[in-house]
Amino acid sequence: MIRTDSRDGITVIRLNRPEGHNALVPALLESLVEHLQQAAKRGRPVVLTATGTAFCPGADLKWLGTAHDPALAVADLVAVHHLAISTLLDMPVPVIAAINGSVAGGGLGLALAADYRIAGERATFTAAYFRLGLTPDGGSSAFLARTIGAARTLELLLTNRRLSAAEALAWGMISEVVADAQLVERAVAFASGLAAVPAFALRQSRQLLDTINMRDQLQLEAVAIRTAARGEAFRAALKAFLDAHPDHG
Fold first, then answer.
1. Cβ-based neighbours of 196, under 8 Å, separated by 6 or more
2. C-alpha span between 101 and 214 (Å, rounded)
3. What mean pLDDT value characterizes the chain?
4. How far apart are CA 29 and CA 210, in angstroms?
5. Domains and CATH numbers, the chain
6. Which residue in 82, 90, 180, 248 is the catalytic one?
């Protein structure tokens, strides 16, 4: 579910679940945490990207639909998702997100937890939480408010508007847009050009730039989404999705 390779000494970690468009299941996130921890030991920046035309659409709704208790499955998924976000925030090296395609829901957290974000031209960004009757998770409530402001964050949540890569750049969600074929090459080049940063200075600087405590925010998000997942709105939205996408994988 995760593929790792090295380019010019830079570790490139790929979400690699193409049959599910890189949607999140616990096993993928557990593997991501392991690969991030291994990459951290090499002392060089890391590029996080994905296989195919989607970066990450959030939770695998078909997987949730097969669970005996989808609300409990949401809780289980959020726990390991937040572990992955915490791992990204505690990386002793810079993390560059190379966003190769569509991003939604929990995928936003993975992209926005990176220190620098580059998107391919085909990338799109949407919240998608309210569509499922859920609240934001993966740190996205804080990451979005920090990068695009509270008003635009609420706009994304209310409308489920899908931003193009160019729009995301204009809003300040990402730092660069490049041709899709050049995305990973550009991310590796950027990573290679960074001066060495002591792990303590990097971690502390991330915390200093946060206006809130991200660990506390993740806990608040986890409580909120677990509660929302027990509601009728989520059950109805999940059923509607599964009825409309019986072969969705």
1. none
2. 26
3. 96
4. 24
5. 2-181+197-244 (3.90.226.10)
6. 82
Q: Is the dihedral of CA 104, 110, 115, 116 positive or negative?
A: negative
Percentages (nearest 5) of helix, strand, coil residues in the chain: 55, 15, 30
Hunting for tokens 């059950």 — which residue is that? 235
Instruction: Report pTM.
Output: 0.96
Written as one letter, the residue type at 35 is H
Q: Which amino acid appears at position 51 of this protein?
A: T
Please, how many CA atoms are within 13 Å of residue 54, restricted to the half-sphere of its CB? 19
pLDDT band at 29 (very low <50, low <70, confident <90, very high): very high
Q: What pLDDT, on the 0 to 100 scale, is given for residue 210?
A: 86
- Residues listed for the chain: 249
Which of these is catalytic: 137, 180, 243, 248? 137
Residue 249, pLDDT score = 44
pLDDT digits (tens, 9 = 90+) for 142-178: 999 999 999 999 999 999 999 999 999 999 999 999 9
Question: Is a pLDDT exceeding 70 seen at residue 248?
Answer: no
Looking at residue 212, its pLDDT comes to 85
Taking each helix axis from N to C end, the angle separating 140-148 and 150-159, rounded to the nearest 10 degrees, works out to: 120
The pair of structure tokens assigned to 239 is: 């059923």
Q: Is 82 a catalytic residue?
A: yes
Residue 236: pLDDT over 90:
yes
